[in-house]
Specification:
292 residues, single chain, binds zinc ion, 12% strand, elongated, 6-stranded mixed β-sheet, alpha+beta
Length: 292
């Protein structure tokens, strides 16, 4: 019989994973394992062609649970594109695992509790900052462990969402649970190849440090227009120092005082490339500050 976790591991794409999380939460009966096991694989017959365990429905290639998941994948593809997954391995389950269980309305989509120390959350990526802030505020230093944050992946990739999830779990205990840390991946495939992020120093953070970069990303996004952000990114990557100086001077002449003050205070021109990359990766995870 397949456990809830086995069902999650059947997901190839992020949309499949999110739909499976949804139905595990809303229709657990569907996955209870009381269905009939399908016949062994043969030329003319066999079990469901997705889970390879349960009986197919009459005249159909899939069992009822797989059919329901696959029928809903299209509807959840747009949700998946804006979603992130968080695999938590912690000393105690935090309170903020369900919508409405905190100080503010979280943008959590679905939750799977694996055991007393592990959980999987799907949430909208722009909900990450308020969620982490609340976690840090509410639990203080009592919550310890590792939160691995990674986006979902679409169809057509060589590796599937299940490979990503299994690798994240395999590496969950890399660090001692003496404090709360965050492992951040901007792309799902990076979970399989962590070397680049590790070398650039943008893989593992203590929660306060990660929150401070998220905060900077929110300010950056609010103060600078998208085309200004783009120009700054190009300038920060320039190798010719004289040229960079010239264009930087020209840019400063065009920016408003607030933007100039921010860039000067942050000393962004002397940041290592990894930090710049992380700031830009996180822009998509934060909302504008309202300035009125
Ligand atoms: Zn099936």
């Amino acid at each position: 019989m397949l456990s809830s976790f086995d069902w999650l591991r059947r997901s190839r794409t992020g949309a499949e994973l999110i739909v499976t999380l949804k139905y595990l939460e809303e229709r657990p009966d569907l996955f209870s394992g009381e269905e009939e096991i399908g016949p062994p694989h043969s030329a003319l017959n066999g079990p469901c062609r997705r889970c390879w365990l349960y009986s197919r429905q009459p005249e159909q290639p899939y069992c009822p649970a797989c059919q329901l998941i696959l029928d809903n994948v299209g509807r959840f593809a747009p949700v998946s594109r804006h979603a992130i997954l968080i695999w938590g391995y912690v000393n105690q389950l935090p309170k903020q695992l369900h919508p409405g269980r905190g100080f503010q309305e979280h943008r959590i989509l679905y939750t799977y509790i694996h055991d007393d120390h592990r959980f999987l959350l799907a949430m909208y990526r722009r909900g990450l900052k308020p969620w982490l802030q609340e976690l840090a505020l509410y639990h203080g230093d009592t919550l310890k462990g590792m939160l691995q944050i990674f986006p979902t992946m679409g169809a057509g990739e060589q590796t599937g969402m299940s490979d990503i999830l299994c690798r994240a779990i395999h590496r969950e205990a890399d660090f001692s649970r003496d404090r709360l840390r965050v492992k951040f991946f901007a792309d799902a495939y990076e979970v399989l190849r962590t070397q680049d992020r590790e070398r650039e120093g943008i893989l593992i953070f203590e929660i306060a440090d990660f929150l401070s970069v998220l905060e900077m990303a929110a300010i950056f996004r609010t103060v600078l227009r998208p085309e200004e952000q783009k120009i700054i990114y190009e300038l920060l990557r320039m190798e010719d120092v004289e040229e960079e100086k010239f264009y930087w001077g020209r840019l400063l002449g065009q920016l408003n005082q607030e933007a100039k003050d921010m860039l000067n205070a942050w000393k962004i021109r002397s940041w290592p490339p990894g930090r710049v990359k992380l700031l830009y990766e996180l822009i998509d995870y934060v909302v504008f500050y309202r300035t009125d």
